[in-house]
Amino acid sequence: MKGPISPTGMKAFLKRNADGIAIAILAIIPIVIWLFIKPIGPRFASVPTTLRSAGQAAGLLGFALLSLNFVLSARLPFLDKIFTGLNKAYVKHHSVGVLAFSLILLHPLFLTLQYLFFSPAAAFAFLFSFTDTGVVLGELALASFIVLMVITLYLKFKYENWKATHKFLGVVLILGTIHVLLMPTDVTANIVLRYYLLALATAGGLAYAYRTVFSLYKAREYRYAVKEVRKVSADVAELVLAPLGRKMRFSPGQFVFLRFETGGTLSQSHPFSLTSSPNDAKLSMGVKKLGDFTSLLSDVKPGTTSRLEGPFGAFSFNKVPGKKQLWLAGGIGITPFVSMVRWIKQNMSILNGYEIELWYSVKTREEAAYAPEIEELARKESRFRFHVHASEERGRLSAHVVAGDKDVSDMEIFLCGPQGFMTALRTQFESLGVRRDRIHSEEFILR
After folding, report:
1. Is pLDDT of 54 > 60?
2. Whole-angstrom distance, CA of residue 101 vs CA of residue 197
3. CA–CA separation, 426 and 418 (whole Å)
4. Is residue 61 classed as helix, strand or coil in its secondary structure?
5. Could you tell me the fold of the domain covering 317-442?
6. For residue range 124-178, what is the model confidence (pLDDT) as tens digits?
7. Which CATH number fits the domain 221-312, given the four candidates 3.10.290.10, 3.40.190.10, 2.40.30.10, 2.30.30.30?
């Protein structure tokens, strides 16, 4: 059996999960208010009243999470700081969205089951009521939400089409808010609960307007022109951009959202890790042909104007306390490490006190983009070691292969690559005694 958590362990847990705890507290407040409006006993005195209470609680919690989720998806600059990386905010956004959807589905289900205790006709009349405006708007919100979540979770749309459908999520929030305010429930009877939910809905609505309706974020974008497109390997190209005004300041390992001032696919913004050093006059990013957008980038002509939003992320070796580090890249996941390598090469003293080992996992050695450039640093600096791991020759890269006979439990682990690659390695390193807060990843789950 595990012993009690030490104060140090609890402090580390709270620090690691502060963002999730904050979301949970904001979402649970309506439930706490609701519980104190009336005596708890009568709410759960029988099966029908218990089902009614469960439906009300599910609706309150689901609506609160839905409102908060609009804030999480808005790419607001302060989220990047709170979550120590925008990608982590999007991971929470995905989880919170699924939970909100599940609770909102349970809301009418529990209420319908309550009416079944009286008669099937009563349940049918409740579920398919077309005379009560509040109920009708709630049904429309639920139907819209179901369609959009099916698209998100189960259908494989092109990115631009998927993004277009998500513009309608604001309709779900508007209809849901009106439904909550019109229904003769504890929300309309209690001013504190009503205004708290209205405040959450307003925050979500403002975030939606900022990102989707008015696109206010565009005022913060940087304008850069394409200077050249360099071929790095058979399927990887490097886009080089020069500023057309103010220059972006960033840390090695950060990423940006890129779009072009053209029509069609290239006008949609997509995330890319920067490969340039913060000291470089120009920006660069490595691009692998993986979809419609990236396939078109190699044909972009010099002089084409682009817009950059960012920088985002906190994926950098100098952002963590430990100086014994393992960097693991899978495929195009090498790009943030290239930025770090280029920064180090410009000032070797950055490595003082560090011991860094970079493992680059590719299918074949020919696919190892940027390998010669990284090998150059490894030859010059003994504190930096580099390995190319070709899976066709040696099988999949694993934590046991990386660790060898050394103890990795006190090392900082940096992961970037396909989702399955990072998930497997994270689990393996944890089994070797590495704490979760020492495992850092750049995950582009930005839908």
Report:
1. yes
2. 17
3. 12
4. helix
5. Rossmann fold (3.40.50)
6. 888 787 778 888 999 999 999 998 888 877 776 666 666 677 788 899 999 999 9
7. 2.40.30.10
